[in-house]
Every structure is written in C-alpha cells, then in structure tokens.
Amino acid sequence: MKRDDIDIILINQNIAEQIRHVIDSDNDNPLPAVLEIPSKDHPYDPTKDSVLRRAKGLYSAEDMR
C-alpha cells in the first residue's frame, strides 16, 4: 500500500546501531517512522530504541498516574 502520510521502516536493532547517527539526525520529522525490531542473533535492548527514547521524553512519571 502506498500512502503519502505514512512511511515506516523496519530495521534490526543491531543494524540500526551501525547507522545510529543517520536515524537520530532527523528527530523533528516524524516520517519515516523507524521501528527497531529484534533479530535472532542479537537481543533487543530497549535503551537503544530511538522510538522509545523519544516517547520517554514526551511523558513524565506524573502523566502515568
């Protein structure tokens, strides 16, 4: 499906680490959404996930009450 308002890139987290400077360079633009997924050979580390790091910046502990 092709839509102008939706762009999603799925990438293994270990590959994303190799190009982290590219992924993190355009944080102001929500598109494309880069979703980091685990691989069979490398465990998933949520502290390195760019989407989770940005989401944590949007909410505080008080917002979750």
UniProtKB/TrEMBL annotation:
- Transport as a keyword of this entry, yes or no, is yes
Q: Name one Pfam family in it.
A: ATP-synt_F
An MF annotation (GO) of this entry: proton-transporting ATPase activity, rotational mechanism
Q: Which UniProt keywords apply?
A: Hydrogen ion transport, Ion transport, Transport
Kindly list the GO CC terms recorded for this protein: proton-transporting V-type ATPase, V1 domain
- Domain of life per record: Eukaryota
Q: Which family does it belong to?
A: Belongs to the V-ATPase F subunit family.
Name of the protein described by the UniProt record: V-type proton ATPase subunit F-like
Q: Which gene encodes it?
A: Vha14-L
